[in-house]
Write a structure and sequence with these properties.
This protein is an alpha/beta fold. About 40% of the residues lie in helices and about 20% in strands. Bound molecules: nicotinamide-adenine-dinucleotide.
């Protein structure tokens, strides 16, 4: 059934007004005899699904982290014991269909609750993970057959996973993580970013309802209603959690790594772009504009700074302006810096930091704030700076793209490595010279390296390959999928039995 825009508005307002979905109503209803109600996509938090609901339905949402862990732990035992691979695929298909039917609600809810990014791009991000997160097809069994017998190596579940998610892609990460993790046979407990707890609660409940409708166990994905650093600690210390997956900034990844558990860490990036004199400059400008303005540059893999060879710089800036970018003059650059950065005393001396008020905000609103009128539709600000400018070195997560002129490729690579800070996250280059492309790719050592396209192509957005919202650079799993969330198990049959050669 199609969802009308009035329905979207009504549901978003209802959920955000109540901050958390109406679980009390659900729980009251669930104490009564189970009833069959008609489930409409989009009504996920206000009406039970069309199956008889369980007596203690919470659809994955719990008051305490301990309860969230216990419920998901029990769910995983049932899932591992009673469900087959084909069941996993059926549940995932139902999650995809339900999430797709809810995509405008999710995008609107995320935009309104977090107050960052662009609604239309959030729809694209949701569709990307819904359609391009792979399922069980990744799980390929390996077989070794030889004179001494037959050995199979299979991808087994970790069991219960604890996942920390960011505010920049809150529900997108949940959908992506759930598909990959349950494809691997796991259950997951989320500790979401507190600034996105209502949309994440909606998403977790929507997913659990979809799973139940498809005949799956309750509470395969759970979350605590009021996430905090304290609840992260509980998650890290609980013995039932066999794997921690952290998507967000480096302090969080480092905190998880101190837990003593197996960790998949997806941390910060500050992706540099190099444009050399052989590049198709018009295409470079189109693609850089697309990537750097998408969702107001909230993505960890978005282009954050450009190093261009001097002879190509004027052409690149001209083409970026043609795409719709606004070139700041020196006076405007100073004003934007004062607006979106703070200059604070730290133990290491005075440092620039991002002013959180402006993270993920529209470029047009930044211009308005410094007195440039009539540019509200503008999606990207560009400025010419030196390689050590704060806009180059700080991961801003804003649509402000600094451009640094370089004398030659060696200089561009040197500056790009400094700006990337060894995060090994993402980098890109526009060039027709294979040697140049190879030199930068080798030097920068990033998890994603994109040639002649927006870095979004590296997660399957107009690029080949599957998608993820958890790009695990620090711990090396890369573009995560179901295999990342499994452990290898080997079974050996000696004496040649079952072999046919
Ligand atoms: P954040 O680090 O502030 O928060 C992420 C999550 O970690 C939240 O749930 C938060 O509550 C928790 N958290 C924060 N500090 C913590 C600590 N010290 N101990 C334990 N938990 C902690 O990040 P954010 O603002 O939500 O997201 C933006 C950051 O995440 C950027 O740096 C971006 O590059 C990065 N990111 C990386 C990826 C990736 O795949 N590599 C994807 C998205 C975002």
């Amino acid at each position: 059934m199609d969802i009308q825009s009035t329905d979207v508005e009504r549901i978003v307002q209802q959920v955000l007004k109540n901050i958390l979905p109406d679980t009390e109503k659900m729980q009251k209803e669930s104490k009564e005899e189970p009833v069959v109600k008609t489930y409409r996509p989009g009504e996920a938090v206000i009406a039970p699904p069309s199956l008889p609901v369980s007596k203690k339905a919470s659809y994955g949402l719990f008051d305490s982290m301990e309860e969230a862990i216990e419920a998901a732990f029990e769910a995983q035992k049932v899932y591992a014991g009673q469900f087959q691979l084909k069941d996993r695929e059926r549940l995932i298909q139902k999650i995809r269909e339900t999430a797709k039917a809810n995509v405008t609600i999710l995008a609107k809810m995320v935009r309104e609750e977090t107050n960052i990014g662009r609604y239309e791009d959030k729809i694209q991000k949701h569709l990307l993970v819904i359609e391009k997160t792979p399922g069980i097809e990744c799980l390929k069994t390996e077989a070794l057959s030889g004179d001494d017998g037959l050995t199979v190596i299979e991808h087994a579940p970790f069991g219960l996973i604890g996942a920390i998610t960011p505010v920049t892609n809150p529900t997108e990460t949940i959908i992506n993580n759930v598909i990959s993790m349950i494809a691997g046979g796991n259950a997951v407990v989320f500790n979401v970013h507190p600034s996105a707890k209502a949309c994440c609660a909606y998403c977790v409940q929507m997913i659990n309802k979809a799973i139940e409708e498809a005949g799956g166990p309750s509470n395969l994905a759970t979350m605590v209603k009021e996430p905090s650093l304290e609840t992260v600690k509980v998650l890290c210390e609980n013995d039932k959690i066999k794997l921690l997956v952290g998507t967000g900034g480096m302090p969080m990844v480092r905190a998880l790594l101190r837990s003593g558990k197996k960790v998949i860490g997806a941390g910060a990036g500050n992706p540099p772009v190099i444009v050399d004199e052989t590049a198709d400059i018009k295409r470079a400008a189109q693609q850089i504009f697309l990537g750097a303005s998408f969702d107001n540059n909230l993505l960890c893999l978005a282009e954050k700074e450009v190093f261009v060879i001097e002879s190509a710089a004027t052409d690149l800036i001209y083409n970026l302006i043609n795409e719709g970018a606004y070139l700041l003059n020196n006076e405007q650059l100073d004003k934007i810096m004062n607006l979106v950065l703070t200059y604070e005393e730290t133990p290491k001396g005075k440092e620039y930091h991002v002013n959180k008020k402006w993270v993920g905000q529209d470029a047009g609103r930044m211009l308005e704030a410094i007195g440039v009128a009539g540019k509200l539709e503008c999606k990207l600000l560009i400025c010419e700076v030196t390689h050590n400018h704060p806009f180059v070195l700080i991961e801003q997560l804003m649509p402000v793209l600094p451009i640094v002129k370089c004398r030659h490729l060696d200089e561009a690579i040197e500056y790009a490595l400094i700006a990337e800070h060894g995060n090994r996250h993402t980098a890109s280059m526009f060039s027709r010279n294979i040697d140049h492309l190879t030199r930068f790719a080798r030097a920068v050592e990033t998890t994603i390296f994109v040639k002649n396209a927006a870095t979004l192509a590296g997660v399957g957005f107009e690029g080949e390959g599957h998608s993820t919202m958890t790009i695990a650079g620090p711990t090396g799993e890369g573009i995560t999928n179901a295999v990342s969330f499994t452990r290898q198990r080997r079974c050996t049959l000696a004496d040649g039995g079952f072999r046919i050669i």
